[in-house]
Amino acid sequence: MGRVTSDTTATDAAAQRAPEPAGAPPAWQRRLRRFGYPVRPQADVRARLVPAFPEPNGRLWMVLGAGPAAAVRLARWSGWIGPLLVALFAGVLRFWNLGSPRKVIFDETYYPKDAWSLLQYGYEGTWAKNANDALIAHPPEILLSPEHSYVVHPPMGKWLIALGEWAFGMNPFGWRFMVALLGTLSVLLVCRIGRRLLRSTALGCLAGTLLAVDGLHFVMSRTALLDLIVMFWVLAGFGCLLVDRDRTRARLAAALPLGPGGVARPDDAVGDRLRLGWRPWRIAAGVCLGLSAATKWNGLYFLAAFALMSVLWDVAGRRTAGARWPFRSALRRDVLPAFGSTVVVALATYLASWSGWIATKGGYYRDWATTPEGRTGGWTWLPDWLRSLWHYQTEVYAFHTGLTTPHTYQSNPWSWLVLGRPVSYFYEDPKVGHDGCTAAEGCAREVLALGTPLLWWAACFALLYVLYRWLFRRDWRAGAIACGVAAGYLPWFLYQERTIFLFYAVVFVPFLCLALAMMIGAIIGPPGSTERRRTIGAVGAGVLVLLIIWNFIYFYPLYTGLPIPKSAWHQRMWFDTWV
Q: How far apart are CA 361 and CA 356, in angstroms?
């Protein structure tokens, strides 16, 4: 070993102070090498900013009988063909016999009637006490008066339900039509979102298939309630932000200088100073998230979570592009535009959803600002309609936070993921010879808002895998999925004394399916694995998916109100809390 001189010591110190070469692993990975952590080679910066989609392979289509040229074309379009086929499958399931049961079930006693009133008056009127029976009578009778009624949810979701009633009439098919359509489109969205998020058409279609056969999503798609509408707009907003992420990172990648061999290298001038410009997809996300909040207020949690997530994506993109101070740069150049594109746009969308109430004079609290109580206070310079609307919102907030009336099917959010207490929307026990019952023992007809059990229980493990990927592998995809679940699930723990129900969880079911698809992808194995490894993984994953589909088929009668023998109904009550 050579003698250490002052010259070599100075050289070593200079080497320590020298900047790291482009593509060098980060310091935290180098430190973990002492404990056996494998440092993977760093890809080109452009590939790290915007990973490429896999090249389409036409072998599957050739196996199915297509010629070589046709197989290439079909493979190129598989990113749309696959999702559309999955959505078609979901649509057939959801629209088949949609008008059954021909009853007003569970909270359909509120929203379809409010929707019809919006069509007639622009605000929610008052219905007679026997209005439900009159609606399903032969001929039906609409017992509605223009006297305003007190409602506690914004109007957007009811306006969408009203579209189906306008097209098909005030009947079960009409008031369920738009919810079924949005449920079908949400499956298409999950397929496309999963493809973009996981960079795999197969895993994207798998996530969509899982959503198509989830019992809770299926039942909510066939019932005129508001929660699935919230889910649709949340999912659409999430998809818009994903597209925005890819486009802005592509803009950063295009601005990077090229080094030897045409390889892009990080550049602090680009990372710190580049303005990301006009971002229409982020504005579209703001509109979608505003529409979710304009349906039910729990959409506001997604607005806050996704707006923050989008800014953190900008920070990560700038860091990858070479920014020395990514947080400072994002604070200067990205935070204010992000706030305007998401929060301000969402609030404007929310306000616009009240146009019917604003434009008419008969709505509840519409003229509150002109009453003696409304004329007092320090905000009298604002328009009367705005002060009246604000008062209405405060009263609704007080109602929601104070709702503690016991209900037979209420549940604590701790039990949701394991399906502790599903909600029965409809139940009848016809005798033999009535309503399609052919069993001598009698039958049961039920619509039970119950997630497909094997899917949800497998998703519990998938969530643990996602958290591992996010916390220990810094996988942004896992973080995005976890953000969607957290925004839809965790806020309910703040209201454990409130009367809440399992079906509220439908808003984060798509993210459970994405988590499960991501875990199944890991089970199959990453590219480059041995053939034996991928074969075993594919068999295991295939068995899991087939068991989930079988589980959905097994509970299908309980999702659709089909008559089954009483003994078969008892066999499907796996836990006492399901009764």
A: 9
Per-position b or e across 322-339, b if 16+ CB within 10 A of its CB: bbeebeebbeebbbebbe
What would the pLDDT profile of 254-313 be if each residue is shown by its tens digit?
Answer: 999 987 777 888 888 899 999 998 999 999 999 999 999 999 999 999 999 999 999 999
**In this structure, which amino acid lies at residue 545?**
V
Average pLDDT on 191-212 reads 96
Q: Is 399 exposed, middle or buried (0-12, 13-18, 19+ CB in 10 A)?
A: exposed
**Residue 299 to residues 212, 305, 347, 457, Cα–Cα distance (Å):** 22, 10, 12, 25
How would you classify residue 422: left for phi > 0, otherwise alpha for psi between -120 and 50, otherwise beta?
beta
Give the pLDDT score at 37.
54
CA 52 – CA 341 distance, rounded (Å): 27
Reported as type and span, the H/E element at residue 411 is none
* Residues 6 or more apart whose Cβ sits within 8 Å of residue 367: 361, 384, 388
Q: Quick: pLDDT tens for 315-343.
A: 999 999 999 999 999 999 999 999 999 99
Select from 339, 304, 334, 306 the least CA-distant residue to 321: 334
3-state secondary structure 512-558: HHHHHHHHHHHHHCCCCCCHHHHHHHHHHHHHHHHHHHHHHHHHHHH
3-class secondary structure, 564: strand
- Phi, psi angle pair for 499, to nearest 5°: -80, 105
Contact residues for 477 (Cβ-Cβ < 8 A; gap 6+): 197, 198, 469, 518
126 vs 42, higher pLDDT: 126
Q: Rounded CA gap, 61 and 391, in Å?
A: 61
Alpha helices in 129-214 (DSSP H): 131-135, 156-168, 172-198, 201-212
What pLDDT, on a 0 to 100 scale, did the predictor assign at position 75? 75
- The pLDDT tens digits for 140-172 are 999 999 999 999 999 999 999 999 999 999 999
What's the number of CA atoms in the CB half-sphere (13 Å) around residue 284? 15
- What local confidence, expressed as pLDDT, does residue 69 receive? 73
Residue 483 near residue 306, CB atoms below 8 Å: yes
Residue 102, pLDDT score: 95
CA distance 522 to 564: 39
416, 221, 223, 304 alpha-carbon torsion, rounded to 10°: 60
pTM over the 0.70 mark: yes
Q: Which two tokens stand for residue 409?
A: 């099917």
Q: Look-up: residue for tokens 């808002």?
A: 449
